[in-house]
Design brief:
Layout: H1 2-20, H2 24-41, H3 44-60, H4 64-75, H5 84-98, H6 104-121, H7 127-139, H8 143-155, H9 166-179, H10 183-195, H11 201-221, H12 233-244, H13 252-263, H14 267-276, H15 284-301, H16 327-349, H17 353-365
Helix pairs in contact: 1-2, 2-3, 3-4, 3-5, 4-5, 5-6, 6-7, 7-8, 8-9, 9-10, 9-11, 10-11, 11-13, 12-13, 15-16, 15-17, 16-17
Length: 369
């Protein structure tokens, strides 16, 4: 049995290293081997933990359906030798995936299930659930509630299993501060995130993304001196390079990098990135980004400055009051796709934030004649 456990430990160490390097498909494959061997050996606790990490790795690789199937096995494990922290962590991951796919009411039911589970086992692990409450509020456009939940989650964070990473909590607070147009708080949070000196690939990307948000916030606040702070072009390019290797299917980093490059007037890099890896309008955010890029190209054709419409200040931008041949149809086409997604997301999440957000952008193209 000792040699068997040593073999499991070696596999698990390789899986950890693969995750740290951003090689999530490889990590999932290694964790599957651990789960299978642990099952043969009758090690229910080892099997549950391997299923948890396999599900996490599959999720990071963009295989949400496979991740859910694997995580459900871990969450439903009731063997006495299974660590309740692993079972709870699997439930947390299931809720995290559900927030992007299921209705708000379904997610609230899962959150309540998580709190009942903690009450049953008498454990104080509420920080991940509070984080997810904040994520749900963020997706619904309720940023005051999102901030309250994320602050509560961060205050209750402990550096022990089960937990989300410190970088995950701080990144969530950063993007809420960005949405709330609070550059002072955003700067403070970015400094905290940088001080963590993250070593894992995904955590380094969160710190880079936070720096991009801070630059965008400062740029918008100080439009009278747009060159006062150099654009973080190298950071944006690094994020694009990391997303191009296909290790993670999270498109958020890529979208933020493309926005920064466009605002920095680095259209050659934008075009090259979209040529290598076209952006599909298969979510509200990607359809909106494609419309924003087309809109800023139209501004440039008129000799107008590019604007960060996504930051929520489109009403302050200069009107597009002249015709730009070929530009308007492309802008409208992308925003019409975004409108369809807005209807879907507003219904799913029981909000009107997506349609209201889109109206800000549509005001600009109605000035074309």
């Amino acid at each position: 049995m000792t040699s068997d456990r040593q073999a499991l430990s070696r596999l698990r160490a390789r899986a950890r290293q693969a995750r740290a390097d951003g090689c999530f498909v490889q990590a999932a494959r290694l964790e599957r081997q651990v789960a299978e061997r642990a099952g043969v050996l009758g090690l229910a606790g080892e099997r549950t933990r391997a299923l948890l990490w396999e599900g996490y790795s599959l999720r990071q690789a963009g295989e949400d359906d496979l991740a859910l199937a694997t995580l459900l096995q871990a969450a439903n494990e009731r063997a006495v030798t299974a660590d309740p922290a692993d079972v709870f962590s699997a439930l947390i991951a299931i809720i995290h995936i559900s927030l992007a796919r299921k209705t708000a009411s379904f997610c609230r039911a899962l959150l309540e299930q998580g709190r009942r589970f903690l009450a049953d086992i008498q454990q104080p692990w509420t920080a991940p659930l509070d984080y997810l409450e904040g994520d749900l509020a963020y997706r619904r456009g309720d940023f005051a509630a999102a901030r309250d939940w994320h602050c509560r989650a961060w205050a209750g964070w402990r550096d022990e299993h089960p937990r989300l990473t410190a970088a995950t909590h701080l990144w969530a607070l950063c993007r809420v501060a960005f949405r709330r147009h609070d550059p002072v708080e955003l700067e403070r949070l970015v400094e905290q995130l940088n001080h963590l000196h993250p070593t894992q690939a995904l955590e380094r990307q969160l710190a880079q993304r936070a720096r991009l948000l801070l630059w965008r916030a400062r740029r918008t606040v100080d439009l009278s001196h747009p060159a006062s702070e150099p654009a973080p072009v190298e950071t944006a390019l690094a994020l694009l390079a990391a997303s191009a290797d296909g290790a993670s299917q999270d498109t958020g980093a890529r979208q933020e990098a493309l926005r920064v490059l466009a605002l920095a007037d680095r259209w050659e890099e934008v075009d090259a990135a979209l040529s290598r890896q076209p952006l599909q309008p298969d979510t509200f955010e990607t359809a909106l980004l494609l419309g924003d890029l087309a809109l800023n190209r139209a501004r440039m054709a008129l000799g107008l400055p590019v604007m960060d419409d996504e930051y929520g200040v489109a009403g302050d931008s200069e009107p597009l009051s002249a015709s730009v041949p070929g530009a308007l149809p492309e802008v409208e086409r992308h925003y019409q796709v975004a409108r369809q997604w807005a209807e879907t997301e507003d219904e799913r999440l029981e909000t009107n934030w997506y349609n209201n957000r889109l109206k800000i952008f549509l005001k600009n193209i109605t000035l074309f004649v």
